[in-house]
Design brief:
This protein is α+β, with helices and mostly antiparallel strands. The chain contains twelve helices and six strands. The protein folds into three domains: about 110 residues, Alpha-Beta Plaits, CATH 3.30.70.1050; about 110 residues, no CATH class; about 140 residues, Trigger factor, domain 2 (Orthogonal Bundle). The protein is elongated.
Length: about 375
């Protein structure tokens, strides 16, 4: 009979000492030996035809290593049944003692899912900021920037006849594609209807209206993001959890990947960026650590609210989200279980945030 001894340490670290009698391990040993013996070649015997005892002797420590590699995870799972231990990382195994025919004893060190407590989230108070009005100056600045780019392009390319773009009466401004150019013989001194039609609008007034609409949509979007961030910060404040180190390191790595992308967009390597800042990677991570802890606490707090409120994502809802993906290669990735688990978690967190927004609005 398998026995276990569980010792809970700080930071959600758990050490599990597992003792396995030989009678429970022997089936794994015999099955592994039979499989590996098929590849053994000994003088005087065809491949895989050597007597099993000779094959076992030839395999030596390789056989034991293969047995333990397969057996220890299975026995750990067995040992954790009926406990409150839920590993959130890959266990580290340390062999304590084992000899063929004798009991196996090993220690597994794992990070347990931390206990999370969230305060009165139903009473969170956050005032939604009023979106800042788009000024005429902001609209004109966009118009002027577009006009300068249009004139530069017109001077560098052959001129074409000017006409309104199809569908120019609705939608946002389209800055892509082959836009009509101003006649090279008489470019406009300033933004006018000719320029506006080249931008896909009916005229300058229509262009300014479309730009204002786009700017207002952007302001509204960012305003909503700020509102959501304020709610999440309140969740973080009322969340109590002893954060496992592995989750902090995962968040630091995520922040680093985000920085690498921004640096790459600037045409730089991360190493060059760090030199320009006079910092090492470890210094940067050290500066980020407090924010990383807040991010993890916020994430765990939101997940706990989801659990308390029974927020879930059905298989049909998950598949519907996958079906929205247009890129075939990206979509194919979600045939595997792990990406689907990550997507389900993200959707659950988003739905929980929407629920909190409703609670805040009604409080």
């Amino acid at each position: 009979m398998i026995t276990q001894n569980i010792e809970k340490l700080p930071k959600s670290i758990v050490e599990v000492t597992v003792t396995v009698p030989w009678i429970d391990l022997q089936p794994t040993w015999d099955a592994t030996l039979q499989r590996m013996a098929q590849e053994v070649e000994l003088p005087g015997f065809r491949k895989g035809q050597a007597p099993i005892n000779m094959a076992e002797q030839n395999l030596g420590i390789k056989l034991q290593d293969e047995v333990l590699k397969n057996a220890m995870p299975n026995f750990l799972i067995e040992a954790l049944k009926g406990t409150d231990i839920v590993p959130i990382d890959y266990p580290k195994y340390d062999l304590i003692s084992f000899t063929k025919g004798q009991q196996l004893q090993f220690k597994a060190t794992i990070t347990n899912r931390p206990a999370v407590t969230v305060g009165n989230y139903k009473n969170i108070k956050v005032t939604k900021p009023t979106p800042k009005a788009v000024t005429e100056e902001e609209v004109n600045k966009v118009v002027d920037d577009l006009f300068k780019r249009w004139k530069a392009r017109a001077g560098a390319q052959p001129a074409a006849g000017s006409q309104p773009a199809a569908g120019g009466q609705t939608g946002s401004i389209n800055f892509q594609g082959n836009q009509p150019q101003a006649p090279t013989g008489g470019q406009s001194a300033g933004p006018d209807d000719t320029f506006a039609r080249a931008m896909g609008a009916l005229g300058l007034t229509d262009l300014k209206g479309k730009i204002r609409k786009d700017l207002e949509a952007n302001v509204s979007y960012n305003n909503e993001l700020d509102y959501e961030e304020a709610i999440l910060q309140e969740v973080e404040k009322i969340t109590t959890v002893e954060i496992p180190e592995i989750l902090i390191q995962d968040e630091l790595n995520r922040m680093l990947v985000s920085l690498q992308r921004r640096v790459a967009d600037m045409g730089l390597l991360l190493e060059d960026y760090l030199k320009s800042q006079g910092k090492t990677l470890e210094q940067l991570k050290s500066e980020w650590r407090v924010q990383a802890e807040k991010n993890v606490r916020m994430e765990l707090g939101l997940a706990e609210v989801a659990r308390l409120e029974n927020v879930s994502i059905s298989d049909a809802e998950l598949q519907a989200e996958v079906d929205k993906i247009q890129d075939a290669k990206v979509k194919a990735q979600f045939e595997a279980q792990e990406p689907r688990l990550h997507l389900r978690h993200a959707l659950r967190q988003t739905r929980t945030l929407d629920l909190l927004k409703k609670m805040v609005a009604s409080s």
